Amino acid sequence: MTEGGGGGEQLWAGRFSKPPAPEAHALGRSVHFDRRLASQDVEASLAHVRALQDAGLLDAGEAARLEQALSEVGEDIGEGRFVFHEADEDVHSAIERAVTEQLGDLGAKLHAGRSRNDLVVTDLRLWLLAAGRRIDRGVVALAAALVARAREHAATVMPGTTHTRFAQPVTLGHHLLAHGWALARDLERLEQWSNRASTSPLGAGATAGSTLGLDPDLTATRLGFHRAFANSIDAVSDRDFVQEFLAVAAICATHLSRLAADLARWTDPALCWAELDEAYSTGSSMMPQKRNPDTAELARGKVARIAGDFVTLTALLHGLPLGYHRDLQEDKEPAFDAADTLELVLPALTGAIASLRFDTDAMRAACDDEGLYATDLAEALVRDGVPFRDAHRRVGELLKRLDDEDRTLRDVSEDEWKAFGVPDGGQLLDPFRSVDARDLSGGPSPGSVRHQADALDAFLRVRPVSP
Ligand code: ARG
Hints:
Blueprint: E1 2-3, H1 22-28, H2 31-34, H3 38-54, H4 60-78, E2 83-84, H5 91-103, H6 116-152, E3 157-162, E4 165-171, H7 172-197, E5 199-200, H8 216-222, E6 227-228, H9 232-237, H10 240-266, E7 274-275, H11 294-301, H12 303-317, H13 332-355, E8 357-358, H14 360-366, H15 374-383, H16 388-404, H17 414-420, H18 431-437, H19 446-461
Parallel strand pairs: 1-2, 5-6
Antiparallel strand pairs: 3-4, 7-8
This protein binds arginine.
């Protein structure tokens, strides 16, 4: 940011006989972070100029000159040429100040019927809605990568786990799609949030609108919002569109964290089920042999700050009376941080997933663990009419006896299986047979995985273009 001289006075200086103390000014100044709202501020200001013209407060020539000046200031800021002054409190006052410097009295007409209270929250809604669209695309890309890998591995068997202990055979595709479905819910949440957030506050003024005959509905349409505010006090007070965005972001980051945890676990040399591509691994500064899963670990850890951003907003808002308070200036940094963090994590995880090398032989070999088939054996007894509790106990007792005899299920003879009541028991100890047999809809069989992949792909293809 270019910083200019200390000259100039506050927009509100008329009522005052002295300038703010430097330390009070430093506390209040937000331009170093809210300059990210510059293009939204120009966009909102252009819509406001049109509203002033519609209300007969500007003629066509005046409106055109204001539009020209606003666009130039927007370009200057965008290209880093704009000089922020020490007296500029925030990006909104800096833009108005620059327009007024160019146009004199005409520039001074810009702020009629609006307040920074409705302007700042209009800008932030526009910014967050655009960030939401970028995040939506990032989540879609990650989910699509998961679906593609799931299709490749619809029939790859692996031990499914509970409590991280081997539980029952599943397919790798089924496990990958479990992450995909969580992301689908994130996309739904983002869409619902953006529909609610698409409300224009412009025209609400400081808290009670204005007497100038501005049309908030027309302004809302011009800015691409779904609707204008229903209540001017609510319009300037409401920050639940930020809080809700952060809640949605925190849930999505939680899903990314859990996916990253699986990556770290699968690529653990103790398990060796997968290997991260070198492009998504890091070395150690001391130990030459190391290839560490830092990408996965950071994706796992970043949820902490996004959850913190949600807590920050909740702490900021609770107990705050309605109306604008300067406290609300604190809403922006958590919002920017959460959006930036998701935009950082999503492509890195997508690349890590797309380039991950699975060791399908190691996963298959891990399915030799015969305990994985204990539930299938119990269910074989149930199909013969044995009550499940008895079946569970009988398989448990068999496992205990084999353990005592230093044998495993694979050492049980055909006669013993017959005596046990499951004549084909030996053939049940097969991961492919096991996953094929669990062909319920939503289950781990290869057919179910392909069906789920089609359904998820269809969901990702019809993503609505968010407002
Ligand atoms: N920088 C302020 C914010 O972000 C703008 C609104 C200032 N309004 C006021 N009444 N002081 O909230």
